[in-house]
Amino acid sequence: MIVTEFMKDPSSVADTRGEWIELYNTLPWRVNIEGWVLADDSGSQVVLSNGGLGLRLAPGQYFVVGNSADTTLNGSVPVQHAYSGFVLGNGADQIVLQKPNGLVVDRVAYDDGVAWPDLAGRSISLTRNLHDAFSNDDGAQWCPSTTSWNASNPDTGTPGFENELCP
Residue 152: what pLDDT? Predict the structure, then answer.
């Protein structure tokens, strides 16, 4: 399970509604991420919870989590699971995905445009041919998206779908 794309600074809606993170199941089996934790290094965190019904990802499935699943408020992003109380910094920050026992499954530490893309209104996406937890540690393997997901939203990204190939 890895982070493959994220929108830290939407321009068409407020950050509190338009931020999202795309996860990708790299494993050859189905994974239930209910009870897993999204966190950063400052101690901010949220437990992914679905009332005990599970949050299951098939092998090779993309899964979008974000601050709002209401497409009328979040910029028409197809968020599959909404959480609250966790935000992405518009400057440098981290996205840490942990199992319930605290084991870190993936960690992405982005900066404020030095080694990582940083353009408001454009998601940051891992190049589509690199789906592993080591490649996504390198800011050079990420690029600002250029694909529009909705005609009514000028922001770009591919939430829930295969990313672009970075130049």
Answer: 84
